[in-house]
Design a protein that fits this description.
Distance between the termini: 9 Å
Number of strands: 19
CATH class of the largest domain: Alpha Beta
Bound molecules: guanosine-5'-diphosphate
CATH superfamily of the largest domain: Adenylosuccinate Synthetase, subunit A, domain 1
Number of domains: 3
Strand content: 15-25%
Length: 427
């Protein structure tokens, strides 16, 4: 029996979609545990190129049961849109189950997301305006609406009435925004409930059954640990827990059942939106990485900030999550670099520290200490075995393993499934 979690080891967008897609060929259940449609996975497989925001990439493997856990916040319209695309490609969707306890994004959540961001002015967090933060806020405030509520006309009307009245007061009185219609929202969400009803279940029980049957279960994280609500670079973080604790609370799976945790990291680093990013590179280098790595957000199209591999942050991620293997993606993006860098410590005043702090002030006063290595300046795209990589690339990867203290199980050298070097079987 193996439960394998795959989490983001940096600031999100590490290429988790590809790694999960690769691993699902051996999985029997794939479960997403947090975030919403602010996450964006690009999956390239024999069916085509798909930009998935909610549905686990496991849906492309015909034998895999896919779960959207209670920790996810669901925009029903987006979910239905993704289902339509999958149906058009003749991909079976009967194996998709959404937790009845997952919270629903309502029309005022994206509006409030945008209004709140605007009101922050220069201190905006850089959210995707998808309403994810406001939906989690309502969940914590115990006024949210859950998937199961969409299946009961009376409960939905009663909960929506309370919520829409409160939100309309906020919209009109604080933000000078026109009110939304309770009637329209009610009818629309009732219809969403009708359409999604075949998929809404107690997903914790499905997982428990899978555990009893010794099935191979893959837990799929969205975003990355450095964006974790508690352990990331607060307040420039996401509104859920991409780290491993989020998998337990977001699915109802006991911690001791998660035997393996893989962190996905790019061979360099990127970050979307504002916030501390110690290894951000100077303009010219960042631009080169951005162009070669197509570092533009799947969800927003925003240009990502780019920089060097941060081994200090990676070690923090390993410690925090009990990571026992790494997947290093996008090695090919460094193919042309004459010099590649790994950040091994942060300089703070006159001292060098090798740990991550949760204080924003401290983060902002750090400068990275780098170890520079010669680049390999040749293509790695066709390489399928570690020993066939250019020597400089092998040295670079071994050094990452050494500093981070964790073996690299998978190296990705291109977006396609086959553009991978598998050093350790996962299941
Ligand atoms: P995720 O949210 O962590 O899945 O990351 P994204 O989907 O936002 O970003 C990954 C992007 O990089 C996608 O466009 C992938 O197709 C692509 N990608 C993944 N692995 C590799 C790789 O090894 N090399 C290259 N060049 N592209 C990759």
């Amino acid at each position: 029996m193996t439960v394998q979690a795959v989490i983001g080891g940096q600031w999100g967008d590490e290429g988790k979609g590809k790694i999960v897609d690769l691993l699902t060929s051996r999985a029997e259940v794939v479960a997403r545990y947090q975030g919403g449609d602010n996450a964006g996975h690009t999956v390239v497989n024999p069916y085509g190129t798909f930009h998935m925001h909610l549905i686990p990439s496991g849906i492309f493997s015909s034998e895999v049961t896919c779960i959207i856990g209670n920790g996810v916040v669901v925009n029903p319209q987006r979910l239905i849109d993704e289902l339509v695309v999958l149906r058009q490609h003749k991909i079976s969707i009967e194996r998709l189950f959404i937790s009845e306890a997952a919270h629903v994004i309502l029309p005022f959540h994206p509006i409030l997301d945008q209004l709140e961001e605007e009101s922050r002015g220069n201190s905006s967090i850089g959210t995707t305006h998808r309403g994810i933060g406001p939906a989690y806020t309502d969940k914590a405030a115990r006024v949210g609406i859950r998937m199961v509520d969409l299946l009961d006309e009376e409960i939905l009307l009663s909960r929506l009435t309370q919520m829409v009245n409160a939100k309309n007061r906020l919209l009109t009185k604080v933000y000078n925004h026109p009110p939304l219609s309770l009637h329209e929202i009610y009818l629309k969400y009732l219809e969403y409930g009708r359409q999604l009803a075949p998929h809404i279940r107690d997903t914790r029980q499905i997982l428990m059954q899978a555990l009893r049957e010794d099935k191979r279960i893959l837990l799929e994280g969205a975003q990355g640990t450095m964006l974790d609500l508690d352990f990331g670079t607060y307040p420039y973080v996401t509104s859920s827990s991409p780290s491993i604790g989020g998998a337990c609370t977001g699915l109802g799976i006991p911690p001791a059942r998660i035997q393996r945790v893989m962190a996905v990291c790019k061979a360099y680093c990127t970050r979307v939106g504002a916030g501390p990013f110690p290894t951000e590179a100077e303009d010219e280098i960042a631009e080169g990485l951005r162009e070669r790595g197509h570092e533009f957000g799947t969800t927003t199209g925003r240009a990502r900030r780019c920089g060097w591999f941060d081994a200090v942050a990676a070690r923090y991620v390993v410690d925090l999550n009990g990571v026992n293997s790494l997947a290093i993606t996008k090695l090919d993006v460094l193919d042309e670099e004459p010099v590649v860098r790994i950040c091994t410590g942060y300089r703070l005043n006159d001292a060098v520290v090798d740990y991550v702090s949760t204080s924003q002030l401290l983060w902002e006063s750090l400068t990275p200490v780098y170890e520079d290595m010669p680049g390999w300046q040749s293509s790695t795209r066709q390489v399928r075995a570690f020993e066939d990589l250019p020597e400089q690339a092998q040295t670079f990867l071994r050094r990452i393993e050494e500093i981070v203290g964790t073996p690299i199980a998978i190296i990705s050298v291109g977006p396609k499934r086959e553009e991978s070097i598998i050093r350790q079987t996962v299941f």
